[in-house]
Amino acid sequence: MQMRKVLDVAIRFVLSCTGIILIGALPPFLAGLQRKTLDWGIYWASLKEIVYSIVHVQDVTYMYLQTEKPLFPFMLEPVMYSLSVMLGAFVLACTAALLMTIITILFNYRVRRFIKIIFYIFESIPDILIIFIAQLSVIFIFQKSGILLMDIAALDKQKIYLLPIVCLSILPTVQLFRLSMIVFEEELNKDYVLLARSIGLKKLFIVIVHIFRNAVISVFFQSKKTVWFMLSNLFILEYLFNMGGVTLFMMESLNPKIFTITLIAFFIPIFIFYTVGEWLIKRKITGGESIS
After folding, report:
1. What range defines the domain where residue 48 resides?
2. Is residue 280 one of the residues assigned to a domain?
3. For residue 288, which of 36, 102, 154, 218 sits 20 to 30 Å off, Cα-Cα?
4. Model confidence band, residue 52 (pLDDT cutoffs 50, 70, 90)
5. Would you say residue 139 lies in a domain?
6. Distances (CA, A) of 289 to 13, 19, 38, 99, 281
7. Same domain as 209, residue 142
8. How does the average pLDDT of the chain come out, rounded?
9. Residue 237 is inside which H or E element, if any?
């Protein structure tokens, strides 16, 4: 059984990387659309170049400021920078969403419905608008008080974290809150909750001790969609904040093999995070049983 699980993880990883490689080889192929031709030979040649580069990744070079440098370890710095911003935003979003869910679930149905409507409306705000509002707010406060709360853009090789993390976490917080509310409200109507309330247990105690543990499992697995949403927003965020992350790194060299290798390097930590998280949940909470 253990070997089967390892094989399942390995297959999912290989299929995911294969998908990234197939997508990474598309740009030269799609460039033929401008000439109203699609040359599969170009796509096949691009695929072979990418696969060869992955196998011999130690030999791959990268042009930086008209200087040829090895891709590794030069690539690791922007990848780790982007991952740290994304991880910080994800942790902040999860924490804020769960705290707001616990507080909201304690209210009656009418109040909960009103709060959810407010969040649903807020979710429709474009992420670019949120970034602009955040930057303008920092500038306004600085003009009025002379206090610079946080940097609004990176200069040269400067690394900024606080404002990008806050901006990147806002919409995921709303998404996770909406998801958490659905899961928590479903748990509220289950028999074990009704039994706990019938014997006089307080609602806050039931929510934190009983509902939270069961609900957070579903939220964890559903959060995969939120992570990919954050990834798409991360590219916009890094551009607007002039961050020296993975976006700028890939834009400096629009090369299919560089793009693919960088994307795989970015994907691996996310894959490990969810694989280990799923394993821990099965082992610690559900006794090793599979989770739907």
Report:
1. 1-70
2. no
3. 102
4. very high
5. yes
6. 21, 29, 48, 28, 9
7. yes
8. 85
9. helix 212-240
Scan for tokens 């709303």, then name that residue: 174
> Rounded to two decimals, what is the model's pTM?
0.85
Strand partners, 214: none
- Highest mean pLDDT, choosing among 30-39, 64-73, 114-123, 263-272: 263-272
Residues 178 and 197 in one domain: yes
Arithmetic mean of pLDDT, 125-133: 84
pLDDT of res. 165: 94
Q: For the chain, how far is it from start to end, CA to CA, in angstroms?
A: 17
Would you place residue 291 in the very low, low, confident or very high pLDDT band (cuts 50, 70, 90)?
Answer: very low
Helices (H), 1-146: 2-24, 26-30, 40-55, 71-74, 76-105, 109-123, 127-145
Judge whether 109 lies within some domain. Answer: yes
Spacing of C-alpha 33 from chain mean position: 32
Q: Which two tokens stand for residue 177?
A: 């809150």
Q: Are 90 and 169 in contact (CB under 8 A)?
A: yes
Please name the residue that has the structure tokens 């070079």: 61
List Cβ neighbours of 100 (8 Å cut-off, separation of 6 or more).
Answer: 173, 177
Average pLDDT over residues 12-23: 94
Both 237 and 114 in a single domain?
yes
Name the token pair of 266: 């970015």
Among 218, 277, 216, residue whose Cα is nearest residue 87: 277
Would you say residue 67 has pLDDT above 60?
yes
Residues facing 86 on adjacent strands: none
Which amino acid, one-letter code, is at 205? F
User: Has residue 261 been placed in a domain?
Assistant: no
Tokens 């009418």 -> residue? 110
